[in-house]
């Protein structure tokens, strides 16, 4: 095994699993361990999370192993309190609870920001100064790095494009209703272009329930109505990408999540994006994530290792505007 001072670890906090990954000095996965996510209460969740950290440290034979944590949620940089929809942490400080047990702090990152960080460091966005990582999975979100670092932000939020409203022009073009979103708003982009959004589009257009994978398979088999649903999805996703470009103007956009595995997805979205460009503005290149499903965990581990070289006990004290 590589020298212990080069090892680092990460934990992916999800609604169904807490996955721990140990990485070697080349940031290659050497060991993984999954356990079910306790969802009944905060204390049982923290106990399980702590056990995963212990396991990583034991596997590395290093009690001070840098370990980064990635979750689909938001951490208030002022209080350290979390907000997440599928794990029992809302209103509670994960970092403080772990510090009480371990006597040190752990970097806690939004999963989309961790994904962007990974792809900016040796990934599909390595040559771009500004990297936007867009995850198209069960939900939709994005992360951003500038010259390989997280830019300062007032509330520490990720690029929450999934909860930006889909433009009225796009909904009108395809005669789509304004669907309510679980966030409490309506017409959110996530409701149309995520995996669940694609399934909703299919149900609306075809008059029957169909999963995103089944729809993609049907379109590949020559089903014209299914193919038309995918064309509409690509146009709506291009609207989302255009919004991101007009606000952030990234050097490249890296795609991840389950829908990024769709055959020819880059070519499909590039065509739709180019057709919706604003005037002569050049759309940024679209690329598939180099590190696939493990990219978010890889980013969290890389960030933890970088922070450990700055000072031994780095989580990221809650410095307003600088939390990832």
UniProtKB/TrEMBL annotation:
**Can you tell which superkingdom this protein's organism belongs to?**
Bacteria
* InterPro entries according to UniProt: ATPase_NBD, ROK
Gene3D superfamilies, A to Z: 3.30.420.40
Q: Tell me one Pfam family matched here.
A: ROK
Q: Which family does it belong to?
A: Belongs to the ROK (NagC/XylR) family.
- Write down what this protein is called: ROK family protein
